[in-house]
Amino acid sequence: MHRIAVIPGDGIGPEVIEQALLVLDKISSKFGIKFDYIFIDAGGCAIDKYGVPIRDEDLELVKKCEATLLGAVGGPKWDNLPGNLRPEQALLKLRGGLKVYANLRPAVLYDELKDSSPLKREIVSKGIDILVVRELIGGMYFGPKGREIRNGEEVAYDTEIYSVSEIERIAKVAFEAAKKRRKKVTSVDKANILESSRLWREVVSRVAKDYPDIELNHMYVDNASMQLVKDPSQFDVILTSNMFGDILSDEASMIVGSIGMLASASLGEGSIGLYEPIHGTAPDIAGQDLANPVATILSAAMMLRYSFNMEDAAKAIENAVKIALKEGYRTRDIYTENCKLVGTKQMGKIICENI
Ligand SMILES: NC(=O)c1ccc[n+]([C@@H]2O[C@H](COP(=O)([O-])OP(=O)(O)OC[C@H]3O[C@@H](n4cnc5c(N)ncnc54)[C@H](O)[C@@H]3O)[C@@H](O)[C@H]2O)c1
Ligand SMILES: CC(C)[C@H](C(=O)O)[C@@H](O)C(=O)O
Ligand SMILES: [Mg+2]
Questions:
Q1: Which residue of 10, 79, 259 sits with most ligand 1 atoms within 8 Å of its CB, as the best mutation to test the pocket?
Q2: Is 141 marked active-site?
Q3: What are the residue positions of the site described as Important for catalysis (predicted)?
Q4: Phi, psi dihedral angles at 2 (to 5 degrees)
Q5: Could you tell me the residue ranges of all domains in the chain?
Q6: What is the pTM of this model?
Q7: What residues are in contact with ligand 2 under a 6 Å CB criterion?
Q8: With contact defined as beta carbons under 8 Å apart, do 68 and 5 qualify?
Q9: One of 56, 222, 284, 312 is an active-site residue; which one?
């Protein structure tokens, strides 16, 4: 029996979570393992219900679970609330509270989706298989921030701050991951301008000495965002900060077809993990059965792999997704000519049947 906190959230969150749970139910019956789901309100729906993005007691409940599966939070309805009361605060509280400092975001281009990538054939034909390792509980998201009056006018600030130990632990995650992959780490920073990036670069170079078999290169974030569309095949593991990782992972998702395909795992020291698609609540398509549930379904697969050590079950899900794509099923975001257009629910059903 594995206890999972399930946080559907807002917008398309509940729609994609519903499909991921159907997939987990199928895994449960195939692999003879029980999942105990604890449903928790967080995000805009919790603000409506309780007046806060996530209640303290719910955060404590989450901490007692082995893993958390989250849809997405936020939406225009809550956009004008003060920063500390916005739905997105729930995410930061969860990530910080669970101390999941390593956010793994794999961007893999499936052969079947080469036409869904906006990049030219000659670029995608070299293949794309990138793991973005994003630091998740430091940097500008968590540094000192505020508003005050200076020289008679209002100013606002957020602070990018990283300690040696924070950089060391995330760098180790990237190098360890590279060992099992193509043995290359590209550390992305802005060391030509930011002091925090200069420390980042120094520490990453130091950690690299413990990994002589791994090739390390450093790249400025502006160049990295350009190189990602020019020649994505040059990247294996991208190691970067919270803010740069947020931005680069959305870019990485589009070059492999759609943000609706990208899963993520957020891990700390133990096996407890937070699993969520990298996309948001997609208010423009919410409630219309248009969302691609694959990112959330693949996040559930990552949960089985990293928190429950169920490699076979994780592979069964990943394989079921590949078969659905091979058979030509596509949600609207990845649809190309001559494929079979399906909605959120049907995509989930087909993936379940393929397990
Ligand atoms: N992890 C999270 O909970 C999370 C992540 C990102 C954004 N958000 C929040 O979501 C809200 C909307 O943000 P946004 O519009 O900038 O980003 P978004 O990721 O929600 O949407 C961006 C675009 O991608 C499309 N899209 C996203 N997911 C999709 C899917 N599964 N299938 C098909 N198309 C998909 C949307 O329709 C939209 O056109 C904001 O409140 C934001 O703060 C939450
Ligand atoms: C909603 C927001 C707080 C979040 C982030 O910036 O981390 C999202 O964009 C993501 O990528 O998970
Ligand atoms: Mg993001």
A1: 259
A2: yes
A3: 141, 190
A4: -115, 130
A5: 1-100+265-355, 118-255
A6: 0.98
A7: 74, 88, 91, 246, 278, 280
A8: yes
A9: 222
C-alpha dihedral sign at 329, 25, 318, 188: positive
Q: Which CATH architecture has domain 1-100+265-355?
A: 3-Layer(aba) Sandwich (3.40)
Task: Tell me the one-letter amino acid at 155.
Answer: V
What does the alpha-carbon distance between residue 94 and residue 73 come to, in Å, rounded to a whole number?
Answer: 12
Residue recorded with tokens 């008679």: 152
For domain 118-255, the CATH class is alpha beta
CA nearest ligand 1 atom 4, residue: 280
1-100+265-355 against 118-255: fold identical: yes
3-class DSSP state for residue 93? helix
For 277-292, how does the pLDDT look when each residue is reduced to its tens digit (9 = 90+)?
Answer: 999 999 999 999 999 9
Tens digits of per-residue pLDDT, 135-152? Answer: 999 999 999 999 999 999
Active site residue 190: yes
